[in-house]
Each structure stands twice: as structure tokens, then as C-alpha cells.
């Protein structure tokens, strides 16, 4: 009997996934069920684009529900505000970085794979930049081996919220 691999996720990330799952089950499922019923009422299903679009969306919704249920069932929720790690970057840290030339600052939070969203500043713990940051401290130089080449950053601050 194999052990299920636990995946780290922040408490906030787990809450976002639970809320999405709840919305999909309570709101989107009912909406799409009604859309399918209405499309069926229009007659011939073979040439009914509304029916086929609704069925396709239903498949997407059910797939996403399954994915979220699986993610949450194996999630190990970590409350980053309760971590006592001193001044080192670990899972859950929000890190402010400055580019080597000092032109730009960026802020990232290191999160689980399931909650990563670069547009929200949430980077996966398994990403090259997160792996380079883990264990570092404020003022450390960090070299990130990215697809575009090596990028150098300096850590300006580390927070756990």
C-alpha cells in the first residue's frame, strides 16, 4: 500500500481552492444544468450549437471539480503566519527582490504548485526562482537559472503573512 504524497499549500491558497470548488458545485453546476435543459428544448441536438457548448462546459466544470477535490484531499495546509523560521526564505515566504541593475523590484510569495499564479505574484515552490531563494536571507545575492539565462537578484525583504 503506497503512501499518498502530500503537497504543501498555504492556508490562503487552500481557502481559495475551497471557495472555487464550492462555487463550481453550487452555482456553475446548476447554471450549466439549466443551459442544457434549455438547449434540449430547442429540438434537434445534432445541430444544436448551444447544447454542444453547454455539454462541453459541463465537462470542463466536472473535470475542474475532480481536480480540486483531488488537490484538496492530498494538500498539507501550512499556516505561514505561524512559521518560526527566523530570517530565512522557506515555503510561504513573501520575498521582495531587486534586479541586479537595481532597475526593478518584484515581490513573490512561494506557494504550492496548485496555487501558483505568476500574475498574482504566487510562484511555485518547485519553480527555478523559488528553489534558488529557499534558505537565503535578506541582502543575499540570488542567481536564478531561468530559460532565458542566469538572472541575479538581491533579497530586500522577507515576510510571513
Key features of this structure:
161 residues, alpha/beta, Helix Hairpins, Chitinase A, domain 3, 2 domains, five-stranded mixed beta sheet, two-stranded parallel sheet, 25% strand
Secondary-structure map with pairings?
Elements: E1 7-10, H1 11-41, H2 49-73, E2 75-78, E3 94-99, E4 105-111, E5 122-124, H3 128-133, E6 141-146, E7 149-159
Parallel strand pairs: 1-2, 4-5
Antiparallel strand pairs: 3-4, 3-7, 6-7
Helix pairs in contact: 1-2
CATH fold-type name of the largest domain: Chitinase A, domain 3
CATH homologous superfamily label of the largest domain: Transcription elongation factor, GreA/GreB, C-terminal domain
Structural category: alpha/beta
Distance between the termini: 37 Å
Range of strand content: 25-35%
Can you walk me through this structure?
By secondary structure, the protein is α/β, with parallel strands linked by helices. The chain folds into two domains: 7-78, Orthogonal Bundle (Helix Hairpins), CATH 1.10.287.180; 81-159, Transcription elongation factor, GreA/GreB, C-terminal domain (Chitinase A, domain 3, Roll). 39% of the residues lie in helices and 25% in strands. It contains three helices and seven strands, in the order βααββββαββ. The strands form two sheets. Strands 5-4-3-7-6 form a five-stranded mixed beta sheet. Strands 1-2 form a two-stranded parallel sheet. β6 and β7 form a beta hairpin. The longest helix has 31 residues, at 11-41. The radius of gyration is 21 Å and the shape is elongated. It starts with 6 loop residues before the first strand and ends with a strand. The mean pLDDT is 89.
